[in-house]
Amino acid sequence: MQWNLVLLTVMAQNYLMVCQHYEYHYIEEEKTWAEAQRYCREKHTDLATVSNMTDMKRLLNISPVNVREAWIGLYDQTKAQRTWHWSLPGVEYNESEANWEINEPNNKGSKGQNCGIIWKTNIRFLKWGDISCNEQYAFLCYDDNNSSKMFHFIKEKTTWLKAQSYCREKHTDLVSGRNQLQEKYTNNGLYFQDTDLRYIFMGLFSDTWRWSDGSSFSFRHWNLQFDNQIINSGQCAMAVFNDEGRWKNEICTVRKPFICYRESTVILIKENKTWEDALSYCRDHHHGLITITNLDEQRLVQQEAQFASTPFVWMGLHYACTLDLWFWISDEVVSYKNWASVEPMDDCNMSGAMETGGNHQWFKTNDTKRFNFICSKKRR
Prior knowledge:
Layout: E1 3-4, E2 17-19, E3 22-31, H1 33-43, E4 46-47, H2 53-61, E5 69-76, E6 83-86, E7 115-122, E8 125-131, E9 137-143, E10 150-158, H3 160-170, E11 173-174, E12 191-192, E13 199-207, E14 209-211, E15 236-240, E16 247-250, E17 256-263, E18 266-273, H4 275-285, E19 288-289, H5 295-305, E20 312-320, E21 325-328, E22 350-355, E23 362-366, E24 371-376
Parallel strand pairs: 9-13, 20-24
Antiparallel strand pairs: 1-12, 2-18, 3-17, 4-17, 5-14, 5-15, 6-13, 7-8, 7-13, 9-10, 9-11, 15-16, 18-24, 19-24, 20-21, 20-22, 22-23
Organism: Goodea atripinnis
Signal peptide: 1-19
Keywords: Disulfide bond, Signal
């Protein structure tokens, strides 16, 4: 008998994409995880928290070439109940919206069952179950790279961790969240040809790992050899830089270099706006459009700019026709300069935009063009 998996597309919602990243600082001195945590809390904010793949790429960018591995802020508790998470960053697990089969999750087996499956209980209904992450099943990827919100059923059977890695490399992530798992059937091209196919991996997992700063981020980037049934181990996580920064669990008393973070003073807004609309948004929600007065500030802003979805990002730099001068809207003098040419043309209705690639130089641009933009945060 042939059966179809019916999944509705995600509800169409327009979200304002705010990219708030951490400033990462690599510390070469070797310390235990607890010593590293204490150092980071005294000198910066805390041991590194990683909320998504963009943060992971930023963390890789600050690591010296000769560094093999370094502590991050993830640790495994010793006496804690496991917590369920969705693989896709930003999707929160809500128990009241769960669709577990009766007596699920039951966490059976000597090492437990910490990964979620879509369970075909009958021809017209799908339920959720928990199963060993190290068993091998087909899986469902989700692709958010276009407006159609496509799903991709992968028949090749593999472990949950390898399925997650595949989906993140080829698409966006494993299918995650109740909105992506609507319980209705429709002929949308997702066919399961195998008559005996009963379980399909989805992006639900549970663990007892927590971030040092108390963040609830579900993002994990374990190496493919990680035994993701491990819970209550009391171990700590490190990033292994010769393995694409993938994480490895280790005894916390081992001495390693480590990575701290400090809360960033700038925020990339991935929404296309005119210069005036960007200025209004930053003033309403943060402090203002970014000001750059020295090379260090230039480097900080260009670290954010590289993740924009437009070729330029707006800055708080504007040309005043009546005064015949360029000025920062924060009233700072334009002393440090990074123009693409020696001097900008003095035209009305022009503002400064930084290129998001290349040398991140500044360009005079018409105010009415629509770009991503970078806001400065309010001082605490």
